[in-house]
Amino acid sequence: MIVTPVQAANLIQNGSFENGGDPGVFQTINAGSTVITGWTVSQGSIDYIGTLWQASNGSRSLDLAAGASPGGIKQTFNTTVGGTYRVTFDLAGNPNASPIIKDMRVSAGGSSADFSFDTTGKSNSNMGWLSKSWDFTANSTTTTLEFIDLTNSIAGSALDNVSVIALSPPSIPEPSSVLGLLSLGVLGISSALKRQS
């Protein structure tokens, strides 16, 4: 049976940031914090958003920039070497301060991709969340997914609704193919033996 992305399990824990301490309107959390269940603030500081603005899924989301240096958040999960995985997430931007364009980087499996969001016309009650996706190939039995803000502002990229699903396992021959290869090998050996005799 082929597992489609719709059926596949989300490998990320707490992808919508609903589990963790109550941030109220918002709470600034610093590098090393694990207050958001399943996640670690990887650098700088971020804002854990409660009621400040409209989340895309549930009632909480993140602003990946809260201080002078870019903030980031990460989570590690099990993967299969050579397997292909799809990261999906909802992206917006803090509309309350410049710049208008918010930039963010997502990385996993030794590769990365950059995404931008234009906050023109957006507000706390109309964030304009966009669904984004990005694929990577795992190079280890565990993979760390990380989101880092590149905006260089106290008002950065907004993140919510993160998921990772396995698209395909690494190439492993089907059992029937293995048997076919073995039988070809046996035929090759027997024909070689016949030529020698």
Task: Tell me what you see in this structure.
- Helix content is 11%, strand content 40%.
- With 197 residues, it is mainly beta.
- A 6-stranded antiparallel sheet has the order 1-3-4-11-6-9, with no helix packed on it. Strands 2-5-10-7-8 form a 5-stranded antiparallel sheet, with no helix packed on it.
- The longest helix is centred in the last third of the chain and has 22 residues, at 175-196.
- The chain is globular.
Gist of the model:
With 197 residues, the chain is mostly beta strands. Helix content is 11%, strand content 40%. Strand 7 (101-108) and strand 8 (111-118) form a beta hairpin.
Work out the radius of gyration.
23 Å
Largest sheet: 6 strands, antiparallel
Shape: globular
**Strand content of the residues, in percent?**
35-45%
**H-E order:** EEEEEEEEEEEH
Strand line-up of the largest beta sheet: 1-3-4-11-6-9
Give the rounded overall mean pLDDT: 88
What structural class do the secondary elements suggest? mainly beta
Number of E-type strands: 11
Low-confidence stretches: none
Distance between the termini: 48 Å
Summarize the amount of helix as a percent range.
10-25%
SS element count, helices: 1
